[in-house]
Design brief:
Rossmann fold; 7-stranded mixed β-sheet; 22% strand
Amino acid sequence: MILIVGLGNPGREYAHTHHNMGFDVIDKFADSLGVSFDREGFKGLYAKAKYFDEDLILLKPQTYMNLSGESVVQVLNFFKIDINDMIVVFDDMDIPVGHIKLKIKGSSGGHNGIKSIINLTGTQEFKRIKIGIGKAEHDVIDYVLSKPSKEEEVLLQAAQNDAVDALKIAIKESFNKAMTMYNK
């Protein structure tokens, strides 16, 4: 079983903001598989799906970003999923808008959702797909909680589509294959 986590903040006011790229990608991924987030539990919304004979749990934690690990750990424990079988999708300010980067391990890079997952799982070794949102020009919090400009939106839609394709390749073939294809 594979756990795919999209990070974001719950609530309408945060929908489609820079910081909710993980939610946007996992929503597109769920749509492409014909499933919806119809289950509530583990401090999140989740869906079960199947892709190329792999059982998937898709998770959108409904805690705020800095507590995302609480939801993730509950799902890992309940479904007995190995951390090596988890992929987390989230926004990254160190990557240019519209680019994606796949990594197998690393620090939080200052991302509070990743920091929470690392703290509660006790490891930095889990797969990630980062969606580039670019640097904040002024206040970081205002930037990540703002909606993208029309120009950014076009680039972010393309990045989200790439992330969905990368997820499918990671599941069907391997995460390393997806990294080779999408890390430029």
